[in-house]
Amino acid sequence: MLALRGFLKVLGTPAQRPCPENAKLAAEALSLAKQPAEKSLALSLLATFPFRCKEGLALAETYLTDAAVANEAQAALQQIRSTIGTAR
Questions:
Q1: Dist CA 49 CA 57 (whole Å)
Q2: Hey, which end of the chain has fewer CB within 10 Å, N or C?
Q3: How is the chain split into domains, by residue range?
Q4: Are the beta carbons of 39 and 72 closer than 8 angstroms?
């Protein structure tokens, strides 16, 4: 978990990567996350500016059915939708 947290911390720092690339890296991190706390940490990143794009939205939507992290996924969705203007 420590390595995953370190990766997420680096991923959350400002960079010149486009949003779709950030979302792809977040998806890779989420695929490695096994515990709800790890998934929650990764999903909380999606609500931040570098991840607010349609790819980040789609990624967060995939976790709405995971009861352990559905609240975090919903919070990320709300933040992303407020930025990109996608209503549901």
A1: 12
A2: C
A3: 2-84
A4: yes
Two structure tokens written together for 47: 């609500």
String of DSSP letters for 33-46: --SHHHHHHHHHHH
Please count the residues of the chain: 88
What 3 state SS string does the chain have?
Answer: CHHHHHHHHHHCCCCCCCHHHHHHHHHHHHHHCCCHHHHHHHHHHHCCHHHCCHHHHHHHHCCCCCCCCHHHHHHHHHHHHHHHCCCC
| Model confidence pLDDT, tens digit, residues 15-61 | 888 989 999 999 999 999 999 999 999 999 888 877 789 999 999 99
- Separation CA 88–CA 85 (nearest Å): 10
In angstroms, the CA 70 to CA 77 distance is: 10
